[in-house]
Design brief:
368 residues, mainly alpha, 2 domains, 14 helices, 74% helix, cell membrane
């Protein structure tokens, strides 16, 4: 008995362990096949280039809520953003890159961002989504199935929808449970216990929806949930480890050889690990589909085109049948008129000595 057979036999003793081992091996195989580290570096680079327009576009729209929320709430939102981001980024990157942008955007609405600059941010900010859609499609084994124009339009629509969704949800997240509990009646403040589980659940649902949209060959939406859970887990753990490591290598407490580039390097490294987390989640979904097959669904636009084509075909058939009936209708009326006329005129009665070729009138019907 070989090593592989022995290992399979030992794993099969525990229910579900053999399938879990096969899933882990399949995920590792997909990551190695499609060069997950290189794709993550590509996605992280374009995400770094798209980060300024993305932040300006999102916070520029959220900044208009500052007059409605009041200066105290805006200050609390800024403090919460700095507090949450400090768990993943270093103090230098927060001080030099993130917080100046947040303060300038949340202090008031940014018309230069939301007007002409907003249109430019839509184009440049969607580049990261375009690359991420392409890399996720590659991990699922569907690379190159979308055209350039179709992929670009999809990334633009996702980016625009993400800005609208983020402008509504991000303030609720960064405000924090303390302020939200003050807005609720005393009898409902116990719901704040579910605040962070709800945030995590919404993140998983968003990632699963992104995986579902990114794959040209659509699978059932539930098949993307495991990848969303794994992506969030890897992202949180990797961010904490990265924060600990970078705080001791390029942070303020040690002599950094990167100098003024340290903040940008930290942000890019964090985006790189975010890309790795997303791609490993996509690899998990791809491996699960290969192990346990699921029927692929036709994309919505293809089903819509097929439905419209079937409707046009049925309409043409009905039109042809109607036109054919209209053409045959006068002939039918003439035939029925001839038939009525023939019934109205009695056929001549032949005399007893007449032949069929020489009909003679019956003398009994003669007048007088």
């Amino acid at each position: 008995m070989g090593v592989k057979s022995t290992l399979r036999h030992e794993l099969s003793r525990v229910p579900g362990l053999l399938g879990l081992a096969r899933l882990a091996a399949g995920t590792f195989r997909v990551c190695m096949k499609h060069r997950v580290t290189g794709l993550a570096a590509e996605a992280g680079f374009f995400a770094l280039l798209s980060l300024p327009p993305l932040i300006f576009g999102l916070l520029g729209a959220v900044g208009y809520l500052g007059h409605w929320l009041g200066p105290d709430i805006v200050g609390q939102v800024t403090a919460n953003i700095e507090h949450y981001a400090s768990g993943f980024l270093t103090e230098q990157s927060l001080r030099d890159v993130i917080m100046p942008t947040v303060n300038s955007a949340l202090s008031a609405g940014r018309p230069d961002v939301v007007s002409v600059g907003f249109l430019l941010s839509l184009w440049s900010g969607s580049r990261a989504l375009n690359v991420m859609l392409d890399t996720v499609s590659i991990m699922y084994g569907h690379g190159g199935h979308r055209g350039i124009v179709q992929a670009r339009m999809l990334s633009l629509s996702l980016y625009f929808g993400g800005l609208i969704f983020g402008a509504i949800v991000v303030p609720l997240i960064v405000i924090g449970p303390d302020i939200l509990s003050g807005w609720l009646p005393p009898g409902l403040r116990f719901l704040m216990v579910f605040y962070w589980p709800l945030v995590g659940g919404l993140t998983i649902l968003t990632l699963a929806t992104f995986f579902h949209i990114a794959t040209p060959g659509r699978l059932p939406w539930l098949r993307h949930l495991p990848g969303g859970v794994l992506t969030l887990a890897i992202w949180v753990v990797a961010s904490m480890m990265l924060r600990w490591f970078l705080g001791r290598s390029v942070g303020d407490h040690s002599a950094s050889i990167y100098g003024p580039l340290a903040a940008a390097i930290v942000v890019m490294t964090w985006l790189y690990f975010l890309g790795i987390a997303v791609l490993i989640g996509a690899a998990l979904n791809s491996a699960s589909v290969r192990l346990w097959r699921a029927p692929e669904r036709t994309p919505v636009h293809e089903r819509a085109i097929e439905w419209i084509g079937d409707g046009v075909t049925r309409l043409r058939e009905q039109t042809v049948e109607t036109e054919t009936g209209r053409l045959k209708l006068p002939v039918t009326r003439v035939e029925s008129a001839e038939r009525r006329r023939s019934r109205a005129i009695p056929e001549p009665v032949l005399a007893e000595d007449a032949t069929p070729d020489e009909p003679r009138l019956d003398s009994r019907r003669a007048i007088g």
